[in-house]
Amino acid sequence: MLRPQDTSSRERVRLDGLWAFAFDPADRGRAEEWWRGELPGAVEMPVPASYNDVPATREAHDHVGDVWYQRHVRVPARWDGRRVVLRFDAAAHRAVVWWNDVEVGRHEGGYTPFECDVTAHVRSGETARVTVVVDNRLHLTSIPPGIVDVLPDGRRRQRYFHDFFNYAGLHRTVWLYTTPHEYVEDITVTTEVTGADARVRYRVDVAGGRVAEVVLRDADGTERARAAAAEGTLEVADAKLWRPGHGHLHHLEVRTAGADPDEYALPVGLRDVRVDGDRFLINGEPFRFRGFGKHEDGAVRGKGHDDVLMVHDFALLRWIGANSFRTSHYPYAEEVLEYADRHGVVIIDETPAVGLNFEIAHTLVPGDPEHIFAAVDDTTRAAHLRAIRELVARDKNHPSVVMWSIANEPDSARPEARPYFEPLVAAARAADPSRPVCFAQVQLPPDRDVISDLFDVICLNRYNGWYVDTGDLATAERELEAELREWVRGHGKPIIVTEYGADAVAGVRSVTAGTWTEDYQVELLETFHRVFDRIDSVVGEHVWNFADFATGYGVNRVDGNKKGVFTRDRRPKSAAFALRRRWRGTDFPE
């Protein structure tokens, strides 16, 4: 799915801002057809943003069920006779959309975009009413999964199995855009590098028409290759490559034939990615991942995308010496990937499949785990498959994305895990053969894991010294090293430790480095680093987490998860300076 852009044939309008908004705790709106008029009792709500913390009430924060958004849209008169599309970059977790009184689209999946072709319903120059109902409920067959309890007083309570708050709403931009009726529907690009030369394989899908020309231009506009077919290979001699730290981008310009041609310009990074034994190679050179698991999370805005926070986070990544991160545990806003493309930051891109773990679910959500996950079946896998395909369809052309992570911390010890995951791995590879596939495995030794051999890279979330052998770093170091060496002997693949860390409350210090102190967080990270440096197959270290973030687990978390090396408002803890010394060799700003 192509991102909206302005070209000679296309125009886009952001529909961000203040929308009319109404909570619907009794699920009245659908039965009463609220989309047919003004929303009852509406207040104003910013878009993009999570709605939970904006009204400053407990009811809003804990709401489970439908919420309604509405605004009026004037379609420019100059769009008369054009194709018109309404696009939502994200609606967590499912949505139905009406244009005036007509349903024009619905979608399930809170982190990938969907579009509604409203051409047949538009009258250019006139104002239309756009209404969206967004449902935040998670069920056993959704991705991610959850359970909704109905309490004796009629209130609903959401239980879920992941350790971050279930923020909801219209988290990303809403667009109205136009194209010709014969238009570029999709572009798929893969790139290869051989020495100083590069090869761009491309495919252009055109709705109702055909391709007139395809031109690859360098960043300065210089033409590097040209073709006149919908599918082909462009050879680029002496190519300027995209590489970590240097986000050099070319542009693939596509123009359709006909009296009303469409034009689209796709940013392209010339680079290739592959796994060779226990090495991870970018452009044929070994790459070592330094960085974090992150979250889209901020005070008040929740998971609402914010360009200010995004740019600041990338500045902190640069300051600390990180070169990569994982989009834990869902696809991030496309603006984030575009920024990474331009600045040479490497990304492991992850689906929202988090919480598919019997044992962890039992510790976070009391109850019988066998009963809880009885419904994790073909229906769940269908939702999981859709999440993988939508992730790849959206992000396949980003050079910053070097690997797909199709799940975080599933229960990979149960025999049922293998028949569940085998077709998902195959589907991910079929959707994009050019990138490795991984999943983040938690706290299971190789002799108990039944699925890691299916994947290209071993990604391990390890909490020795925190959840395991709490406070005992000597034991943590010994057992971590022994286990990692087992993975090396058993698989011979690259290993990335995709999570490791400890909670630390900012400002809490101790000469004895007790748990929950900044000092213990530093010592734990240094313990892991000593082990990593002794094992050549460890090609990546992603600290959990970049910054403190909101969670939903009462007595298990005090004001959220505190494993960040930055606070939620991005102030550095001692661990941030320790990582800067390791990754950059200095404490001080440039």
From TrEMBL:
**Which GO molecular-function terms appear in the entry?**
beta-glucuronidase activity; carbohydrate binding
Q: Which organism is it from?
A: Actinoallomurus iriomotensis
Q: Name one GO biological process term.
A: carbohydrate metabolic process
- Going by the entry's taxonomy, the superkingdom of the source organism is recorded as Bacteria
Q: What class of enzyme is it?
A: hydrolase
Into which family does the record put it? Belongs to the glycosyl hydrolase 2 family.
Domain Glycoside hydrolase family 2 catalytic positions:
273-585
EC annotation?
3.2.1.31
Residue limits of the Glycosyl hydrolases family 2 sugar binding domain? 14-180
Q: Does the keyword Hydrolase apply?
A: yes
PROSITE patterns noted in UniProt: GLYCOSYL_HYDROL_F2_1, GLYCOSYL_HYDROL_F2_2
Q: Which residues form the Glycoside hydrolase family 2 immunoglobulin-like beta-sandwich domain?
A: 183-271
Q: What is this protein called?
A: Beta-glucuronidase
Recite the UniProt keywords alphabetically.
Glycosidase, Hydrolase
Pfam families this protein is in?
A: Glyco_hydro_2, Glyco_hydro_2_C, Glyco_hydro_2_N
Q: Does Hydrolase appear among the keywords?
A: yes
